[in-house]
Design goal:
With 50 residues, the protein is mainly α. 50% of the residues lie in helices and 0% in strands. The chain has helices at residues 18-23, 31-49. The relative contact order is 0.08.
C-alpha cells in the first residue's frame, strides 16, 4: 500500500507553537498559563483577606 501525504490543515495534527518548539518538552507549563495561575491565586488571596 503506498504512503500518502496529507497537509497538517487536513488533519487534527497541529504544528507546535514557538514556545513549545523552543522549550522542547523541558517546561511543565507555558508563560501565559503561569501568568493566569498567578492572577487566580492573587484573586483568591484577596477574597480571603477581605
Amino acid at each position: 500500500m503506498p504512503v500518502r501525504l496529507l497537509q497538517n490543515a487536513q488533519t487534527d495534527v497541529n504544528e507546535a507553537d514557538l514556545f513549545s518548539q523552543v522549550a522542547a518538552g523541558r517546561s511543565f507549563s507555558r508563560p501565559d498559563d503561569l501568568s493566569a495561575l498567578a492572577s487566580l491565586i492573587d484573586r483568591i488571596k484577596r477574597r480571603q483577606e477581605g
